[in-house]
Design brief:
Distance between the termini: 16 Å
Number of helices: 8
Strand content: 15-25%
Helix content: 25-40%
CATH superfamily of the largest domain: Ribosomal protein L1/L10, rRNA-binding domain
CATH architecture of the largest domain: 2-Layer Sandwich
Number of domains: 2
Oligomer: single chain
């Protein structure tokens, strides 16, 4: 019972952040038996006329099937540039993670490096020309001396995320092919992911979302999509009540 209460309360807190509230001092979240009172809340953010015009085209209370949500997120994006399509997910538990490979590139490339003697010399010289650093366990004694450089940037190899591995070459191929680990925030069951770009085809975005839902099957409570500039769209998740 204790764990369920924690999930419910965290979900409540998340919805307070994302739901537009008419009365900013008191919020009654659907599905919760409690009314959450916010004693110190900033004034409701003023929205531009353009945002309000776009938001008016959306049914605030409706959960849209994936295909409809994808069409809407592209239609309601009003940026003058090719925007990102972001997925925001509420899952059942904090500290959840899942390995995921999207079938279509989101436009973000990842530079992966494997530790060797030459790379160690570059790191010592302050050159960090990579996004992810992989290492064989035999290099850990030498890497430990560079923890002050790598640690603060989140680049220190470790076994928990698979960057310290006896097979760094295999791991590099997986990462360059788009495989990554999606995690919740540290203190909340929330996940955030760029699922694609607004100039991608509907089919490509649909397939990326399907891959996400398949990887998280049974763990998703709520899902919404939003463009870089535009309103969030609630997505119907049919398996959210499955165990």
């Amino acid at each position: 019972m204790g764990s369920k209460k924690n999930v419910d309360m965290t979900q409540t807190e998340m919805e307070i952040k994302t739901v537009e509230v008419e009365n900013p001092t008191e919020v009654n979240v659907e599905g919760s038996e409690e009314t959450v009172v916010k004693k110190a809340v900033k004034a409701k953010k003023a929205r531009s006329k353009r945002y309000q015009a776009v938001r008016a085209q959306l049914d605030k209370s409706k959960f849209y099937p994936v295909k409809e949500a994808v069409e809407l997120v592209k239609k309601l994006s009003y940026s003058h540039f090719v925007g990102s399509v972001e997925a925001h997910i509420i899952v059942r538990e904090v500290s959840s993670s899942v390995d995921l490979t999207l079938p279509h590139s989101t436009g973000k490339s990842v530079k992966v490096a494997i530790v060797d003697a030459a790379l160690l010399a570059e790191i010592e010289a302050g050159k960090l020309d990579f996004d992810i650093l992989l290492a064989h366990p035999e290099f850990m004694p030498k890497l430990a001396k560079l923890a002050r450089v790598l640690g603060p940037k989140g680049l220190m190899p470790n076994p928990k995320n698979g960057t310290l591995t006896p097979n760094p070459e295999i791991k590099k191929k997986e990462l360059e092919a788009g495989k990554f680990t999606l995690k919740t925030e540290k203190k909340a069951p929330l996940m955030h992911l760029v699922i694609g770009k607004t100039d991608m085809s509907n089919d490509q975005l649909n397939e990326n979302i399907e891959a996400l839902l398949k990887a998280l099957k049974g763990k998703v409570l709520k899902l919404s999509l939003s463009p870089s500039m535009g309103p969030g769209i609630k997505v119907l998740v049919e398996d959210k009540d499955e165990e």
